[in-house]
Design brief:
Elements lengths: L2 H10 L2 H8 L3 H8 E2 L3 E20 L2 E10 L5 E10 L4 E17 L4 E9 L5 H7 L5 H7 L5 H6 L3 E8 L13 E12 L5 H14 L12 E2 L4 E6 L15 H10 L3 E4 L2
Parallel strand pairs: 8-10, 10-11
Antiparallel strand pairs: 1-9, 2-5, 3-4, 5-8, 6-7
């Protein structure tokens, strides 16, 4: 890491500055670390940096598998697995613990009603088919060796379940119950605008190193990743223009977002 990157790391260790840089990317940070199956983020209200640590090590888990067997005095076969941290860490330049306040619509789920009825009042196959529109009746009868409506009636009892889902209330963004606080750990990698690929590789190494670690449960969605990956790019030293121009900020942001990362730029 050179002088420019060292200075950038020192600036990123300031919670106020880091919060200002990350707040416009807050929604992305939540969506990259949480699976939102029943939640929809309407807006981001605030982002707070609770804690910052520079040069944080992540030790990948080292798993070993094997087997042991013997034939004397008796036949024995055993499998074993051993897990432990490796001795070589992967480094996060700046690790930030964030609290992100979001306004979100949540599907509460639940049922209004569930009714199970026996279907026995039918005289033709078409009448039965009208009761079970989702069923391929011809294929069902072939697979069970049925030919006539009498065969169908005698083969068993058929039940029809009617489920009515509970309709969620009208979403009110101003209701206090729709404001949620999400905890996110951001792993910030200091990169260089003339080596964006290097920043992507470093971030992917962090993700791979932490992949098998247990994730704490949360109250918003399902946690799917330990870290939100962020690449921070310090302002480059003014130099004569290169023969081949580098990527623009917009191109870097688009590239990294497609890779599941957020990009921030220091000025």
């Amino acid at each position: 890491m050179g002088v420019i990157q060292d200075r950038a790391m020192a600036r990123l260790a300031d919670p106020v500055l880091l919060g200002e840089l990350l707040e416009p990317r807050a929604r992305l940070l939540v969506e990259r670390t949480h699976e939102l199956e029943y939640e929809r983020i309407d807006s981001v209200a605030a982002l707070r940096v609770r804690k910052v640590a520079a040069q944080w090590p992540v030790f990948p888990l080292d798993a070993r598998r094997g087997s042991w067997s013997q034939v004397v005095p008796g036949t024995t076969l055993s499998d074993f697995r051993w897990e432990g941290d490796t001795t070589e860490p992967v480094w996060i330049d700046v690790l930030a613990e964030l609290e992100i306040d979001v306004v979100a619509e949540t599907d509460p789920g639940g049922l209004d009603s569930l009714v199970v009825k026996a279907v026995d009042a039918y005289d033709t196959l078409d009448e039965f088919r009208d009761r079970f529109r989702f069923l391929d009746l011809d294929a069902f009868m072939r697979s069970h060796g049925l030919v006539t409506v009498e065969d169908l009636r005698e083969s068993g009892e058929y039940l029809r379940t009617e489920v009515k889902l509970r309709r969620p209330p009208v979403f009110d963004p101003g209701h206090p119950g729709n404001r949620r606080t999400v905890t996110v750990d951001a792993a910030v990698i200091v990169g260089a605008t003339d080596d964006v690929a290097g920043a992507v590789r470093a971030a992917r190494l962090v993700a791979a190193a932490a992949r098998d670690r247990p994730l704490p449960p949360g109250s918003f969605g399902v946690r799917v990743a330990p870290y939100a990956l962020v690449a921070a790019f310090p302002a480059p030293v003014p130099l004569p223009p290169p023969a081949e121009p580098g990527l623009t900020r917009a191109q870097i942001e688009s590239l990294l977002e497609g890779a599941g990362m957020a990009a921030v730029f220091l000025t």
